[in-house]
Amino acid sequence: MTARKFGSPGLYIQGPGELNHVKEHLASMGDSFLVIASPRRVKDLGAQLAESFGEGYKIVFAQFGGESSRKEIARLTQQAEKEACGCIIGMGGGKVIDTAKAVANQLGTPCVIIPTIAASDAATTRCACIYNEDGSEDGEDSFDKNPDIVLVDSQIIANAPVRFLLAGMGDAMAKIVCATTCYEGYRNNELGGQATELGYAIAKLSYELLLEHGQAAKYACEQHVVTKDLEKIIETNILLAGIGCEVNGGTTDHGFYTGFCELKNRKEVLLHGEYVTFSTLATLVLQGAPKAQMDEMYSFCAAVGLPVCLADVKLDYMDEADFETVAKCVVDLPPTKNHPFHVTVEEAIAAMKTADQIGKLYKEGKKLF
Ligand SMILES: [Zn+2]
Q1: What is the 248 CA–ligand 1 centroid distance (Å)?
Q2: Tell me: the pLDDT tens digits for 71-115?
Q3: How many DSSP H helices and E strands does the chain contain?
Q4: CA of 227: how far to CAs of 115, 163, 176, 234, 306, in Å?
Q5: Which residues lie at CB < 5 A from ion ligand 1?
């Protein structure tokens, strides 16, 4: 029997103004830090971070070049070595975070993540999406452990455009769909073990929190204020979604998204979580999910303003060849095999086209009867 496996970040801290308590939270991580952040984040938050460390700490800011590519990871690894930094901090969005995790892994140093948006679960996971210099995907790297500390300043998340929070909600929503399939089918999770009861409970909890507090959290974020609803959704997007994904296993919830990234003719590149939302809805169709579940998810997405159809993710231009490109990618991805049925190219295309039609219904304020 395969062993049950569960993993999570070493420590998770979340609250408004917590960036002012960095010294206290990171005391166990040493006294020399390489902070990877975009030039804009260094300008906005660099002084606050350095001030909150105070005297006696070596803080080196390394400006992120914009892509979590092998070249960028090598460059920043070299810089951390040259500066003899004992801990890597990634402060920013998904690509900064993934780069920081990869650099820390190369060096074998502790890793601290300070997410500035809640657009995905990147902050807490033990993997990184690697891109080529031109922005195309170059696969995913997995590491031996999750980040040591994830420090979230809720006010910083609230200050960011609401679109990021919504995308994170879409990324989080995917977890219940893939987790249920993997848990019920005794499939292996991303750690190579079986899901634990705690792991599956986390996926269920994240979905409950989304339905209960997602819409109210959106309004708080629009006003750039921190409320209890927003705190619950920040935790859902960052902590629960990150754990919920790795410790249960994936299916096609991210598969259609990966397929969309294969399209060379996209006029606009949207956020990860926005594509994942439609990818999850297409997965429901692929599974022949109960109408109540479909209605709940489509209604939620339409209510908060998450994508429900191909036009919402700027993919309504797709022709038959494009559908086939995406579907072939979906069929070939290893997590697709976690479905209890064989997925064909034709079925994957049918799922996308049908999910799109159902989405249009909800856009018109109608619903599945
Ligand atoms: Zn994701």
Answers
A1: 14
A2: 999 999 999 999 999 999 999 999 999 999 999 999 999 999 999
A3: 14, 8
A4: 18, 17, 25, 10, 21
A5: 171
